[in-house]
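Ticket opened by: R.M.
Priority: normal
Category: complex prediction / small molecule

The reporter submitted a protein together with pyridoxine-5'-phosphate and asked that the result be attached to this ticket for the collaborator who will pick it up next week. Submitted input follows.
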Amino acid sequence: MNSVYLGVNIDHIATLRNVRREKYPDPVHAAGVAEKAGADSITIHLREDRRHILENDLYLLRQTLQTRMNLEIAVSDEMLKIALNAKPESVCFVPEKREELTTEGGLDIKKNFIKIKKATEILTSSGITVSLFIDADREQINAAKECSVSFIELHTGHYANAQTKKEKEDALKKIAIGASYASELNISVNAGHGLTYHNVNQIAALPEIYELNIGHAIIARALFDGLQKAVSDMKTIIRASRESH
Ligand code: PXP
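Result attached by the on-call engineer:
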C-alpha cells in the first residue's frame, strides 16, 4: 500500500495577519506547528497582489522549514525570478486572476503551451520539481506530458463544489480516470482545492494520488481545535481512507 502525503497550505494564517497589518498570527510559527503535527510539506501561494503570503514570509520559511516547500505561483517573469532566488523544493504553476477569491480553475496548458513549457524548463534545470495545476482533462494531461513535468496537481474544486450526488460521482470519476491516465504516462499526481474533513476520503483513497494540498479547511478547523489537532486529524483521515481501499 503506497502512502498518501499531506501538504498543508498556510496562506490563510497570513490572510488573518494581513487583515490587521499585524505580526501575528505568524506563518512561520504555523508551519512549525503543522510540521510537528505530521504535515509532509508546506504549501504557500505567493500571489501577484500579495493578499496573504508576502515575499518576506517566503524567505523566512525557506530558512525554517524542515519538510518541503511547495510554492504556488503564476507563470510570470516576476514569479520565476522569485522562485529561482528562493529555490523551493517544488513549484506548482497555477492560473491567477486578480479579482478571484481563490484559484478558480486549472491552467490551460494547451493555450499557454510555449510560456508554460519554457517556465518549466527554467525551473527544472535549476533543480526545482515542477507541478502543473490542471483539471482532470486528458488533453491537459497530454499537454503536461509534453512540458516534461514530473508532477501534476489535479483540481478537486468541481468535486468539492458538486451540488448533487450524481455531479459528485461524475467529478470523482473524472479525477480517478485522470489520475490513472497521468500515472500511465509516468507523471506523479497530487490533488487539491476545496478538500475538507467531510469530502477528502474518496480523493485520498485513489491509489495514484501522491500528495493532497489542503488549506482552508485545516486553518478553519484550527480556530476551534488548534492547528496541531487540525493537521493530525486530517492526516489520520487521509491515511485511513487510503488503507481502507
Ligand atoms: N492546490 C492549489 C493549486 C491551490 O491553488 C489551492 C488554493 O490556494 C489549494 C490546493 C488549497 O485549496 P484549499 O484552501 O481550498 O484547501
